[in-house]
Design brief:
Layout lengths: L9 E7 L2 E7 L5 H8 L18 E4 L2 E4 L12 E3 L12 H8 L9 H14 L5 H8 L10 H15 L12
Parallel strand pairs: 1-5
Antiparallel strand pairs: 1-2, 3-4, 3-5
Helix pairs in contact: 2-5
The chain binds FE2/S2 (inorganic) cluster (2 copies).
One FE2/S2 (inorganic) cluster (FES) binds next to loops.
Keywords: 2Fe-2S, Iron, Iron-sulfur, Metal-binding, Oxidoreductase
Organism: Effusibacillus dendaii
Protein name: (2Fe-2S)-binding protein
Amino acid sequence: MIQVSRDQTVEIRLKINGKVYQERVEPRKLLSDFLREDCGLSGTHVGCEHGVCGACTVLVNGSAVRSCLMFAVQAADTEIMTVEGLAADNRPHPLQQAFTECHALQCGFCTPGILMSSVEFLNSHSDPTTDQIKEMLSGHLCRCTGYKGIIEAIEKVASRQKEGEKIDGSGDTV
Ligand code: FES
Ligand code: FES
């Protein structure tokens, strides 16, 4: 284990949205703050800062993680995807498209975190029930929408997936 004093910084190297970042960070810096302040990826929102609202969710090695509950140094040598990594070739990710079509966002504060959890969820649930979607969303707070449009949007993408349209984590349909 690396021993560092409070004022020291540690060099970390990781891949975010396919790009390699090598930065020096304070050991106590949260991953959410690192993404926003050091990497300029402010699409990851910070709400409660203690693991309750889900707004800061990103994918770390493919798993949905609350970035306010992880130190940046713990993310060394991982691959991270943030909401900025979803759209590809100037096309929105199918989930982003469906959120627009189903009016699944209003202020949009919760949206990046819900999108990232939904990507992971749909990767492991090819034919989810509405109850499973609601269970997944139980880790996310949305103050605006009432969740109806969000559920519809995820169901829409799931049904396209079921029809054989494979959706990968980078937003491509293949
Ligand atoms: S800001 Fe991380 S869970 Fe709320
Ligand atoms: S759209 Fe405003 S908090 Fe969800």
